[in-house]
Structure formats: structure tokens, C-alpha cells
Amino acid sequence: TCHFSSFLSLVPTASPSNVQVGMLNLTSGVVRWSPPPPQEHNGILLGYKIQVKAGNSTKILAQMTLNATTLSVGLHNLTTGATYNVRVVAYTRVGAGPFSKSVSSLFFQQ
User: Fold this and answer.
1) Per-residue pLDDT tens for 57-85?
2) How far is the CA of 104 from the CAs of 6, 42, 77, 91, in angstroms?
3) 12 membership: H or E segment, kind and range
């Protein structure tokens, strides 16, 4: 019998962890995360997708696709006093795994 399992790529079975959103200034922030555990990659990670939503809205304000070596991204043109929800997902050539839990950040006047 042939065993091809080592050649199969699947989607990641875990989401990125330690997702954090921080303020840079009144209208800019940064999102940071850690990769899923290596045993959960299920193939070569090609990168991450980041989704940004406003407050309780289901409308996606921004969506970014980044390569696998990028573990942070800047957010710009944010509104002071607004709450943003950010989530991150890792993907292989087969597709995306589970999203991280949404992380909320309130951009307030300093």
C-alpha cells in the first residue's frame, strides 16, 4: 500500500493565538499575533488574513492578506471613540483554518 498522507495539505486546525490590538496614536493601531502551533499547520502556512469590523457591526471594514512571516500589521484611518473588532486566520494552499476569537479595542482620546 502507498501512503500519501505526508504529502496531503489540509487547512490549519488551530487559529493564530495571542491576538492583541494596540493604539499607536488617535487614528492608528497595530495588530499582533502568534502562529498556530506547528502540529496544527497541516501543510505549509502561506499567510494570514486579518478582518476588521466596527463595534457590533457584521460589516467588514478592512480585510488584509499577509505572508506567513508577517506577525503584525498597522491599522490606519481609525475613528477616535470607535470600537473595532479584529480577528486573524492562518491559511495553507488548501484554504483557511478557524478564525481567532475577535479582539475588541476602543480607540479613545488620550
Assistant:
1) 889 999 999 999 999 999 999 988 889 99
2) 38, 29, 17, 22
3) none
pLDDT score of 5 more than 60:
no
Share of the chain above pLDDT 70, in %: 90
3-state SS class at 35: coil
Q: How far is CA 75 from the centre of its chain?
A: 12
Residues in the chain: 110
How remote is the C-alpha of 110 from its chain's centroid? 26
Cell of 42: 497541516
Could you count the other beta carbons within 10 Å of the beta carbon of residue 33? 25
pTM of the entire predicted model? 0.87
How many beta carbons lie within 10 A of that of residue 56, not counting itself?
8
Could you tell me which residues come within 8 angstroms of residue 24 by beta carbon, excluding any fewer than 6 positions away?
30, 74
